[in-house]
Write a structure and sequence with these properties.
Elements (H helix, E strand, L loop, with lengths): L3 H4 L6 H60 L3 H12 L4 H8 L3 H18 L6 H14 L1
Length: 142
């Protein structure tokens, strides 16, 4: 590739040289604008995809929380109370045991049973970790 100083000698007049320089500058500017336009189009497209993904994620989360609330409503009252004390109030097993007047091991066993009942009342594709995450999310929102 020739440099400008080497190419300059191939022109007959200074005006031809000047026209060539201006054409090169114009072409570079057009290339830069096209590249900028392509980047903007890509960014806008990416933002639309992100918004669609956020909306889909929010819809799935909303439907799953609705399912979780329905499963909680189906729990026996003493297990709903355990859920409230443990997840809403954030009490430790020993504190729950003192509040309910039962042994701490009883609280642990009831928590296991509570999660099993929730799992049974939830769709098969939702695992125990998801239920725990949803409970945490639900309580942060409250």
């Amino acid at each position: 590739m020739q440099t400008f100083s080497q190419k300059r000698h191939s022109f007959d007049t200074a005006e031809q040289w000047r026209a060539h320089i201006l054409a090169c500058i114009r072409n570079k500017a057009i290339s830069a604008l096209r590249k900028l336009s392509a980047m903007r189009n890509y960014t806008e497209s990416k933002n639309e995809d992100d918004h669609e993904a956020d909306a889909t994620r929010a819809l799935i989360e909303h439907e799953t929380l609705d399912t979780l609330y329905a499963a909680i409503r189906m729990l026996p009252p003493d297990y709903r109370q355990l859920l409230k004390l443990s997840f809403e109030d954030g009490l430790k097993n020993a504190e729950i045991a003192a509040t309910l007047g039962v042994a701490e091991i009883t609280v642990k066993k009831r928590k296991v049973k509570l999660l099993e009942m929730l799992r049974r009342n939830m769709p098969d594709d939702i695992d125990l970790q998801t239920i725990a995450l949803l409970l945490t999310t639900m309580l942060k929102a409250a």
